[in-house]
């Protein structure tokens, strides 16, 4: 068994080396598929980051009526936190709201004068609520629009911003779905192109397969070396794919940062380089091995 | 050892082998003769499991060839050494590697392979060409590699389908002499040919075919053209 395995490996490596022109051509096509796959991973990460940044900017705020005791407000905060849809609730007291307001307008003398004239703190205590999913804001708003809470709540911002929030939620949903579909479609196209290239590569050996069978080679002995070659194609395409991605990510990163300042593509690539290599290997070796298996199987049946 | 029992083969409406029945005993040298299209090659293809008979039974040793499935054929073929007119060697391997390949698929240990392969190549007169790739060899040399590959696993039978069809007269007789020697060492040989001169000079058993039928089977036969 071990001897057979060693012989299969030997013939695989030998076939790869002796058909070097076919091998190089096949690896180049597989490399294109790997680059498409890698781009999908990296652009997927950029897209996710963009979506999460937009998502992070959406929240709803609840302004309390004047003179609502703080413990009631905090009690509402606790009950909101217990909802499964709610990711985070921040309580902003009147004093805190005033401090933040002043911080936001440090050099605006008109605002400072107006506050001085009013004398008292005109701002209300509030809760800022973030949901896990933008679609859940409507459910949270319904919870807050309850009659029993109307005695302590002055306004719920969702009621004013409902249209924008719902539209953003839909856009993000469509963005995610489109990204997923695009990934699947491009990955399938890349796989089909690679499969056909391997089919052509093995087709040149069709007669050899017949000869091997006439000499008494078992199906496993005939198929084995082609699968080894398919795996070598995959490994080399994946490794070269990552090598090509290194300078590409470095040079593209500044352009991505212009669009999304919070995204550093180069750092993302460095911190995920081995994961990307792993995915590339899985993708390319699977294509190489499965294609070889399927193509040789066809000739073994014939 | 080999029995064809009422074997026929049809391609559509065209019956290329018709109710062929004969037996070949161990150690025999049998020439299968007939004009092109007489059915010789189809008969051989059915014997090695490359084609299935439309009717009848083919027995080879313990195997009922017509009933073997695709996965069982390799085992059958390891008991046979097959030689073709167009050589059917692995083109990207050297002469040595072609012979080694046959031994490796049969699961022979490496030590035996290292010992036997040079001996067999020497026996067929190729000791100086062992490291040559197939495209670097002449037709006669290619056929010698094919014979070395066919005999290296000590098969029960050597089946040669028009092995001299692509060779000049000198190489033709070289190949026939090799087959005769192999037979003298005890291996059954089936030689399909339409070369009258070879058949008549061998003075061995001759099975003659015409239009898919066996028309003659003689112990020390001649190639008689109709």
What does this structure look like?
The complex is a heterodimer of chains A (302) and B (226). Chain A has 302 residues and is an alpha+beta fold. Chain A is 76% helix and 7% strand. In chain A, 27% of the residues are buried. By secondary structure, chain B is of the alpha/beta class. Chain B has a single domain (28-52, 80-218), classed as P-loop containing nucleotide triphosphate hydrolases (Rossmann fold), CATH 3.40.50. Chain B is 33% helix and 27% strand. Chain B has helices spanning 40-47, 73-77, 95-105, 110-123, 139-151, 169-184, 196-202, and strands at 2-11, 14-24, 29-33, 55-60, 63-64, 80-84, 157-161, 188-193, 205-210, 213-218. In chain B, the strands form 2 sheets. In chain B, strands 6-7-8-3-9-10 form a 6-stranded mixed β-sheet, with helices on both faces. The model of chain B has no long low-confidence stretch (mean pLDDT 92). The A-B interface holds A 3-4, 7, 15, 18-19, 207-208, 210-219, 221, 300-301 and B 48, 50, 70-71, 73-75, 77-78, 80, 82, 88-92, 101-102, 104-107, 109-110, 149, 153.
